[in-house]
Every structure is written in C-alpha cells, then in structure tokens.
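Help! Submission page says 'invalid entity' but I think these are all valid:
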Amino acid sequence: RHDDLKEMLDSNKDSLKLEAMKRIVAMIARGKNASDLFPAVVKNVACKNIEVKKLVYVYLVRYAEEQQDLALLSISTFQRGLKDPNQLIRASALRVLSSIRVPIIVPIMMLAIKEAASDMSPYVRKTAAHAIPKLYSLDSDQKDQLIEVIEKLLADKTTLVAGSVVMAFEEVCPERIDLIHKNYRKLCNLLIDVEEWGQVVIINMLTRYARTQFLSPNQNESLLEESTEKAFYGSEEEDTKDAKAEAASLAKRKPYVMDPDHRLLLRNTKPLLQSRNAAVVMAVAQLYFHLAPKAEVGVIAKALVRLLRSHSEVQYVVLQNVATMSIKRRGMFEPYLKSFYIRSTDPTQIKILKLEVLTNLANETNISTILREFQTYIRSMDKDFVAATIQAIGRGRGPPPCLNGLVQLLSNRDELVVAESVVVIKKLLQMQPAQHSEIIKHMAKLTDNIQVPMARASILWLIGEYCEHVPKIAPDVLRKMAKSFTNEEDIVKLQVINLAAKLYLTNSKQSKLLTQYVLNLAKYDQNYDIRDRARFIRQLIVPTEKSGALNKYAKKLFLAQKPAPILESSFKDRDHFQLGSLSHLLNAKAVGYQELPDWPDEAPDPSVRNVEVPEWTKCTSREKRKEKVEKPFYSDSEGESGPTESADSGEDPVSEGGGATMVAQGTLCSGSEEEEEEEEEEGSREQSEDEEEEKKPKRKEKEGTRKAAQGS
Amino acid sequence: MIHSLFLINCSGDIFLEKHWRSVVSQSVCDYFFEAQEKAIDVENVPPVISTPHHYLISIYRDKIFFVSVIQTEVPPLFVIEFLHRVADTFQDYFGECSETAIKDNVVIVYELLEEMLDNGFPLATESNILKELIKPPTILRSVVNSITGSSNVGDTLPTGQLSNIPWRRAGVKYTNNEAYFDVIEEIDAIIDKSGSTVFAEIQGVIDSCIKLSGMTLSFMNPRLLDDVSFHPCIRFKRWESERVLSFIPPDGNFRLISYRVSSQNLVAIPVYVKHMISFKENSSSGRFDVTIGPKQNMGKTVEGVVMTVHMPKAVLNMNLTATQGSYTFDPVTKVLTWDVGKITPQKLPNLKGIVNLQSGAPKPEENPSLNIQFKIQQLAISGLKVNRLDMYGEKYKPFKGVKYITKAGKFQVRT
C-alpha cells in the first residue's frame, strides 16, 4: 500500500515530494489512516521547500502520538530551529515541537518554553504562551514550573502576548488570582489594543478577578428595589422618596465608594461594545451585567440588540443571555421591545427564545401591545410556536386582559390551540379567586368537542375543583363523561374519578349513582393506576362500617385550598452562571467552568495592585497620568535627572530607588535588544500619532530616560 | 478551546476533519446527527449540543455544517464567531464556500486551518496575514505551479503577524491609488395587515475597497449614528470626541463599520403592498391578489423587486397572472416567488389568480406573510452622507468614490 507515495517521497525532486504530501494531507483530511507512511514522511522534515516542510509538520503533529519513537527523529531539526536568528522560524519551531504529543520530550519542551519566554521577540514569547497549555495537558506534573513561566509572561508589556498568556493562565492555574494583582492595571490599559480573541479571554478573567477584589456596587439594591416596587402601588411619590432616602441612609452608614481600579476596568471595556466581534461584545456585556452599578448596566442593551441582526447561531446565544438578563433587569431592554418581534421566517428555536424575552419584558404599560402582537403569532402555521405563545400569554403579567384573550382562543378552530389554552387557563384560574364561573361554564361546553386528552383532563379538574360555582353544570358533565368513560385516555379517566369524588362530597343527592357507576367502571379498567385510584377513593368517600376515621375528613382532603402553580421563566436564576459561558447556555456546569465568586464583604487590600518599580511603559493608572500632565513638567533636559522618575510613582512611598532602577535597566540593554525595543515603539508611535494627549508626556519621558541611559 | 472540526454536508457525509489536539473519533458526530434528525429543519438544529464527553458547537453556512468539538468551558459565541470567520475565509479564498470548493482545495484548506488555530486558540484570523502566508488559488497560478513546481505557500515570512496593525500588509504598492466606499443600507420591517408599520429599522454597513500605497489616514464625517460597530482599525478615541472615523485602512476589501438606525427615528418605507388573499370555506380554492407600489422615494426607482411567499401546506397549486415579471410556485416547498423587476409608478405590478387547495383539507388558518426584496440605487434611506474623505501623510492624490444603495433586509408584510 502507498508504495507509489513512498517512492515519490524518496525522490530528489521537490515537486514530486510536494505532490505526495498533498495527497497524504488530503487523506488525513478525509479521516483516512496514513500512519504507515510515517518513516517516509518524517525523513523530509528538514526539506528545503517550504510548502513540503509545512505539510510534513501537519502530518507529524497528527501522527506523532501514535509513532512516538519515530517522531523523536524529527526533534533535533526543531531544536536547531529554536536557535535560528529569524524570530519567525524560532516561533514556528517551538509551535510544532510543542504540538508533538510525546511524553519523552517533556523536558526538552520545558526548556524550550522557558527560553522562548525570555526571547526578545514578542512573537516568540506569544508562541511560548501558546505552548504552555499544550505541555500542561501532556504532563500536569510540570504545573509549578509552568506557573513560573506564566508569571513571567504576565508581566510582559506587549499586546501580542497578553491574550495568549491569559489563555494559558486560565487553562493551567485559574485559581492563582494573586498572579494578576500586579498586572491588573496593565491588562486593563492594554485591552483595547489586544487582538479580539485575546480580548474575550482577558475580559472573562477580569470579571472573575473583580468579583474577588472589589465591593459590590449594588449593595443597596435590594433595599432600593423594595421601595421602587412600592412606587407602583403607592400614589404619593413623596412617600416613597422618603422611604428611599431612609433606606439609603440605613445602607450608607459606610458610604460606598467605587475602587478606582474597578472604575478603570468598566471604563476601558466600554468601547469594546462596539467591536465587530460578537464574542467580544458579549464578553463586555456580561462584565457589565456582573460588575457595573445598576444605573450603568443599560449601555449594553443596545449592543446586544445589534447582535440580533447577525447569523442565527449568534442570535440563539445572544437571546439566551438576554432572556436571563431581562428577568433581573427588565427596564434595560424595554426600549427595544420591538426588536424582539417575531418574523414568520425565523427558525422555531429563535421564535421561542424571542417569545421568552417578550414575556419577560411584559409589564402593565406594554402588556396590551404585546398581547396584540401575540394574537398575530397564534395564527402562525408553526404549531410548536403557537403552543409556546399560549404558554407565554399565560405567564404574562397583568391577569385580567390575559384571561380574556385566552378565553377568546377557546373558540379557535385549531384543536391544539384550544387545548393549550385550556391548560393555561386552568393554571390562571387556579391563581385567582374563583369568580370566573362564566369561563368555567364555557369550558364545560367544550368537553363535547375537544379531543386532546390533556385539555379534557384540565377541564374536568377545573369543574371538579370549582363545582360549587357551577352547581348545575357539573353533574351533567359527569353524566356525559360516565357515558364515554371506557373510551377515554388514562389521564382523562383519572380526572373523571376525581370529579366524581368531589361531586359526591358536595352534591351527593344528584351524583351518588353516577359516582357509583364510574367507580365500578374504573374497578375493572385495564390500567392498574385507575383501578387503584378507584379503590382508594371508594374507601375514602363512601361510608361503610369498615371505613375508618379518615372518612370524616374526606371533604377536607379533596377540596382543600390548593396552592396556585407558579408560572415562571425557565431562565430565572440562571445568572448564577457567568453569562455568555457555555455553562449558562446549557444551564449545567460544564467541565472546567470557573465559578463566578460572590462579592466579598470587606474589600481586600487594594494596594496589592500598586506596581512598585516604575516601569518603562503603560502601567500606571490613568489618574496618575493625568496628574502628570498637570504638573509644570519635565522638559527633556529635566528628564535626564533621576529624581523626576519618582514623580511617576507619585503616591507610592516605596519607590525611593525608582530613578536609580530606571537607569540601571537602561544600561543593561544590550545593543540589539534596544534596537528591537525601538522598532516596536516606532510602530506603535505611528499608529498612535494623534491619539490622546496623555500619552505624549510619557513618550517624552521615555526619550528622556533613553538619553539618560546613554549618558550613563 | 476548539478541539476538532468536522465539516458535514447536507446528506450527512463527513467530508473533512481537522484536529488541533489529540484525535477525536468521528463517532462523536452521531450525537449531532441525532439532534439534526430531531430538529427536522436544518435551521432548527441547536447550535450547542452536550454529549457525555464533549460539547458540540456548530454553525450552518452554505449547505455545510461546521461542527466543532469542545472539551472544556468556553464562551459559545467565541466558537461560533470563529467558525463563521473560517467560512468567511473560505469564501474569500475560493469565491464560494461550497463542498466542491473545499474538496478541490483541500490542501489549502488544511494549511489555512493550521494557521488559524494553535492548540485550539485563534492565531491568525485576519485575511491579510493569511494571504501573506498562503496565497489564494488563481487559475494562472495553478497553471504556473504545475509547470514550475512552485507552491502556494508564501516564501516571505508573515511580518503582518508582528505588527501592531495586523490587518495591513507591509510595503503595499499600487500604481492606481483608489479608495471606494459602498454605503449599503437595509430596511428591516414588519408591516401589519392594514399596512401600518409595526417595526422598522435601518441596518447599514460601509463596505470599503481601498488600494492605497503606504500608510494613510482617511477621514469620513458621517452624521451622528445611533449604534455602530467598528473594524478594529478605527480609532475609537477620535470617534468619541469628534464623531470622525479615523483609520489606517486595511488593504483590499473589508467592512469598515456597520450601524443601526433604530425605529425611534422614523424610517421611511419605500414601497407599499396591497393584498387580498382569501381562502373560501369548503370550496378547496382561494383568491390571491397582490399589488406592489412605490411610496415617496426622492425620485429614485425601486428595482430588483422580488416577492417570496411561503404558502400554507394545504395549497396544491396556484394559477396566477402577473402584469409584470414572472412567477414560480414550487409545489413541494410551497414557496411562491414572484420576480417583479423594476416598479414603474404609472403601471403598478400586480399578481392575481386562483389558489387550488387540497380537497377536503380544512381552510388554512393564517394568510401567509409576504417577504419583499428590493433595491434602490444611489440612495441611503437614513439620509447618511459621507461628507469628506481626506488622506494624510501621503503625497499622491488617490481616486475616491462613494456609492450608496438601499436594500430590503428582513422585510415582511403580514396579511
């Protein structure tokens, strides 16, 4: 097998080798086994032709795990590549080396990663960050050493590395939140320039970090909410204002002040709501939902609604999250109510989610609009959707109009619609004091026509439960049902028995014989549940000499006040999962899910985030920078002197030696490294030419220090 | 992160698989097939499926399912967005994202997937970087390659990956310096039975094609927009402070911004529809009569009008006459398509006739809703205008062009 391919791989011509490799890759792509070619392929790992080489890498990574011994032959090539003067070749060598899942080379990989982590090229450092989770999944014993590397890379100041290293952090040691402290402000400031995938990972991680380090901005929420609820009922506004003030004063014994770092995070993530990447928008949205003060959360609604225009899969995920958010923060999405209106061309799963959101958004003012919209949906051809709509109507707030709307549906031509409405009406009636005998009468008439078992059962239950409100009709219904008893479905039969029992207890004169008849029929039913029920009920309600003490309480047992069912959204309380996560979507904890911690009661020490040694680049918080701008200011010549540097660390008392360290760092730079640094800066400068004022002084300062370095 | 990817066609064949970590057996897709069967419709397949050992996150694009295998917690949108980016890249490279195109270019596909993810984490997704790494196939190149044996893999190293602006290739040179902007607006609307607007908003995008040598800065001055999302090249600070778009353009085609003008601002609806659809009780037939006409359009003609209607299941056939254009009715899917073309206000296009129903079937409950498509050239319905387009830092004068077009988005008329 594959002899021709082997021959081609052994030939001297690159074009033949390439052709062979292409055919092999096509085999791999189709899922066919090509592992017997391993020796022939691995020989070409050092091939000069770049495409052959790449395809060999593809092959190697795919089959190395199965052919460990042979794979070792290729290692030396990569080790050589790691020393190449070209950064891109170093990076690609590390990338392939770390992808080969052969446990024997773990020490080699570890060494390579450590070296690459201090490479002067940020691209190689990024690759090192990518390699960390690979090694970790191969050998989790390396954890401690890998954490050291992660710690080192977290301190990196380039945007290229930031996303990748946080990814590694999340996979290897998400519990080591302490590693983030020193880098928190830097990450916040770099965030906007990080590539989009990295942004998602960083934002999610920072959400968790903030939950452990800052105080809840909504501490007073519960108290306030109570008083706003009151505002609906109470007419005098001043009253509630007083109450609010009172509640506030109670809660604000220790006034809440947001940590400036908390504010920094919120401020720096907000622009990302305008990202073209839906995942980034969602990440920011969940950050705001979990971390922002209630008054500020609203900004995310607009961005989320915008995502609804995207692919249907994106819609699906976004709507799930909106459904959860809209329960807790209804007001946020109310202005966008119409964006959730349903089109007949939407897929059913999208329709049902939109329905969920619409229902959550219903309140006294918009309920009539929503119900009118629902009326349109009920005529849809999509029957699953119609059923869902009726359930949604049942869940809608503001009972009276709902009920009327539903009763109208009872005369609908479609049986499914009627059946579904009966079930919902049953639930609604149960929640309200029973003064709706008209509706019950109407439903009683329906028993002649409705065939859907669940609906029939519901009607019977209702009549039984409220038989005292319809004293004339109830026995008649029982008469009809007794006639058709043998042809009914099981759930209907059970309800017939219940109805009979309840009537026997309230109106035994009219229904005694009927009940006996029904119970006799049930006694010989095929279903043992029904036989059991009949036997049980007979003992309970028909007084005989043997029947015990329970007989007296039969009426209490059957006609007790039953608690109304609670109709609530399946999305309630889903927000205990971090929004936007897989776990939230599945409503179950996914593997590797990091619990979103509760706010701490006492804020942990904020000074841990202070960076002691003044750094070359962005690390100080904005406030500090602004402060600098206002200061009379270092000209270039001033910058040469050490002490000005300590101004950078302004409020930080520890940094006495700041200036000195700075100079020392400067002198340490070897020629090549400095050039590299300079190149990088050049790039960023061109990009940020006309960016905010604030950066300017810093650049001056940098130039200043460079001079200082040269001077010394 | 993303463990493996399977591409599956509509008949359920797995025609491509790629693993970024250790190999996952194809049998994991059985769970997907199960869900697919349950969903009946392709569009109702849940995008996220949980299986005992893995999670499957899938998208459906151009008759292909992209099914990715996930093992640990990851934001689902992250994966979905990435998969769409993959499909976009295929589209960009092969002109279409079809099974045949992918099969024909399987090596390039594999090389692309290899570069896009490293260990399941996105590495290079920017089309400019990818094109530097792997050249897209052209007929000329494939001929040349077969003769000379040279390859599609770029021999230059992808310097774009190192730069701060990954969307732009280094050292781009053109003889003609051009910059084109297409302002495309789509009207999403729901019109109710009586013709009043239930919901309407404008979704706009500015697609750009920029071929300029060297680094440049362009300025555009759109009127205040309500809700915008940006290509990463746009400097947010500048937008915040001055409402000006300032950017270093990517090379070639890209979407500069997309925006939404929401229903609060009044959206002008450019067409109206008069309709009379009715089904008679017990007669197994019905009447169908639809007329489309233009509303005030600032003197522009409405063209490319197409109406599609999903008729109820009970409809057997339709016997219609159109005063303009042609219509087709597919008796299997029950979709009526009427290709109208241009609307001339003097003679309004009309389609009417008889609907034949299955005999004995109950009269359909609901009248079908009408989906309308149309196009208006040289008009941005929201009134958005590009005011100025300036370039900084370069000596030459580029050719600049701005084009406007308004289309129907999800435009639905309830009847």
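Support: the input was valid. A stray whitespace character was the problem, and the output above is from the cleaned input. Chain B has a mean pLDDT of 82.
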